[in-house]
Design goal:
The chain has helices at about 1-40, 55-60, 85-90, 95, 105-110, 135-140, 145-160, 165-170, and strands at about 40-45, 45, 65-75, 75-80, 120-125, 130. α5 crosses α7. The protein has one domain. The chain is an alpha+beta fold and about 180 residues long. The strands form 3 sheets. It has a two-stranded antiparallel sheet. It has a two-stranded antiparallel sheet with strand order 3-4. The chain has a two-stranded antiparallel sheet with strand order 5-6.
Length: about 180
């Protein structure tokens, strides 16, 4: 009888150890995407809602990307309309990736918050792409783009790594509000 208990205990220990390693492995593998999701607005698995970030600069409008042309930057996946756009992005992602991780620029400036950036509500200013949550907010942002950018530039380093749920319940100190 005692021998059976020892064998059961060894089997149990092996199962627990295996499950523990599986958990640790899964956690380690998922750590980067979780961080990216905090710093980069990822929707349905892609930054910029799957729109091609290079197209804003080359076509002057939002263009949906293709599953055939993708690249990863800072832990987030991006789609592109063409292979050429993908190569342009890979060569200089900082030039094409939206500011503030693709979150609403006005929300970052006004409240230090990470609201969804709608890829159809956009502005390119001084060679940088800014997204906003909706047409009404986009209109307001365009009333003082340089001022809101200064406010968002102040707030983004403070909030970039903080999950939105934390920002809404416990905003950090040092945030500015509105155009600066």
């Amino acid at each position: 009888m005692t021998l059976t208990i020892v064998k059961f205990s060894r089997a149990l220990r092996s199962a627990v150890l295996g499950a523990g390693l599986l958990f640790v492995g899964t956690t380690a593998l998922s750590a980067q995407p979780v961080q990216a999701a905090q710093e980069i607005n990822v929707q349905d698995g892609y930054a910029v809602h799957g729109y091609d970030p290079v197209a804003y600069f080359t076509e002057g409008k939002p263009v949906e990307g293709s599953e055939s042309f993708t690249a990863t930057h800072d832990g987030a996946s991006y789609k592109f309309a063409t292979a050429e756009h993908r190569e342009m992005f890979i060569a200089d992602p900082a030039k094409y990736a939206p500011q503030y991780g693709g979150f609403c620029a006005f929300g970052v400036a006004m409240a230090g918050r990470k609201f969804d950036g709608d890829p159809t509500q956009w502005t390119v200013k001084d060679g940088k792409l800014y997204l906003n949550v909706n047409a009404t907010v986009q209109e307001r942002f365009r009333e003082n783009v340089p001022g809101y950018i200064r406010g968002a530039d102040n707030n983004w380093p403070i909030i970039a790594e903080i999950p939105e749920a934390t920002l809404s319940s416990n905003p950090p100190e040092g945030l500015t509000q509105g155009a600066q």
